[in-house]
Amino acid sequence: MTSYLIRGARILGGEPADLLIRDGRIAEPGGAADETIDGTGLVALPGLVDLHTHLREPGREDAETVETGSRAAALGGYTAVCAMANTSPVADTAGVVEQVWRLGREAGLVDVQPIGAVTVGLAGERLAELGAMATSAATVRIFSDDGQCVADPRLMRRALEYVKAFDGVIAQHAEEPRLTEGAQMHEGEVSTRLGLTGWPAVAEEAIIARDVLLAEHVGSRLHVCHVSTAGSVEVLRHAKARGVRVTAEVTPHHLLLTDELAASYDPVYKVNPPLRTAADVQALREALVEGVIDIVATDHAPHAVEDKECEWAYARPGMLGLETALPIVLSVLGERWELIADRMSRTPARIAGLDGHGGSLAVGDPANVTLVDPAARRQVDAAELASRSRNTPYAGMTLPGRIVATFLRGEATVLDGKAVK
Ligand code: DOR
Ligand code: ZN
């Protein structure tokens, strides 16, 4: 196994130091290594962890595969991703989650941790085989019907009760379906102007309020996917003050983009939950810094051209995220490396229970590392992305921060900004 000496990189943004990667771990610096990397001006972070990735396999391999999505993740600085269950067939059995897990191992570019569906076929009617998925080779700990909300409060309660036995977590896509029928974008001034049916903030906030109360009642863990409104932040703040076991994520796009972009009618900006107002964006940024929102998760949602380059109303919701997440977060938060390491690596690893990820790059830790050049600026070119899909809303934007290298347990997956395999 190749050993690497990274000279003079700023570890988690601290003073320049040497970092030795040997036999899969961070080793005591000193002595030679097979390869030396000049780390001058670079920042070393623990490998990023994405709690919310759509890899589309099985079923929509034309949009993404476990392998292409894993490569996009590695290029984005990730060493682990949690694969959402809304595949075809749905990941609602031990067989499907084991298949995704095995494909991740075979690709060998990031650790792919499957998320299991909460309900059979994401239909919201019967609980899926949560126990069988938990005890499968994939050792599922997070369950989610993402794309759909677990709207039935009794099913949600049962799911929370079920996973309590093994300290699992239910990740909720918070959207009261009766309040978003036919919705095309955020309900507000812009939707009124454009004449598009609105998706009101309260459809998200009402489900989060209900679910934090259910989680408190049951004493279970709840995770809220892609929080998008200022009101949701207030509900979460209240729940956390009461000691409810709830964590929450925000996406890079909800930290940067607003509903004004819908005025272009370009479906690349169609996403669920929808882009919100500038005031929501500001509240989400503050909540992330404060810790009311725990993590950044991409909701990387690749879509084939025919599902995206069509009329707004017919386009599928979702946008790419893995290869641009760190640059977006850097542009939003600035070079607050400890904060970035916490929100994009340490805390997501803890929520997902991914041992060996989210460390502090201490001697002896598994060498899951990403090396970033914060001074480099890069123009996003959709054609250059490793994802099989092209639906990035950032095309043409110049963003700070280039991922120079990524190491998964000491093996380079990215070197010189390029995928190794
Ligand atoms: O925009 C979205 N896309 N939101 C979701 O909840 C699902 C996702 C997808 O699967 O494309
Ligand atoms: Zn979702």
TrEMBL record:
Obligatory cofactor(s): Zn(2+)
Domain Dihydroorotase catalytic: 43-230
Biological process per Gene Ontology, one example term: 'de novo' UMP biosynthetic process
Residues reported in the UniProt entry to bind substrate: H54, L55, R56, N86, N272, H303, P317, G318
Binding residue positions for Zn(2+) 2: D146, H173, H226
EC number: 3.5.2.3
Keywords annotated in UniProt: Hydrolase, Metal-binding, Pyrimidine biosynthesis, Zinc
Pathway the protein contributes to: Pyrimidine metabolism; UMP biosynthesis via de novo pathway; (S)-dihydroorotate from bicarbonate: step 3/3
UniProt keyword tRNA processing present: no
GO cellular component: cytoplasm
Name of the top EC class for this enzyme: hydrolase
A GO MF label: zinc ion binding
Catalytic reactions on record: (S)-dihydroorotate + H2O = N-carbamoyl-L-aspartate + H(+)
Residues noted as binding Zn(2+) 1 in the record, renumbered to the chain: H52, H54, D146, D299
Spans through the membrane: none
Record bears the keyword Repeat: no
Residues forming the catalytic site: D299
Cofactor note: Binds 2 Zn(2+) ions per subunit.
HAMAP family per record: PyrC_classI_B
Known function: Catalyzes the reversible cyclization of carbamoyl aspartate to dihydroorotate.
Descriptive protein name: Dihydroorotase
Organism: Spirilliplanes yamanashiensis
The encoding gene: pyrC
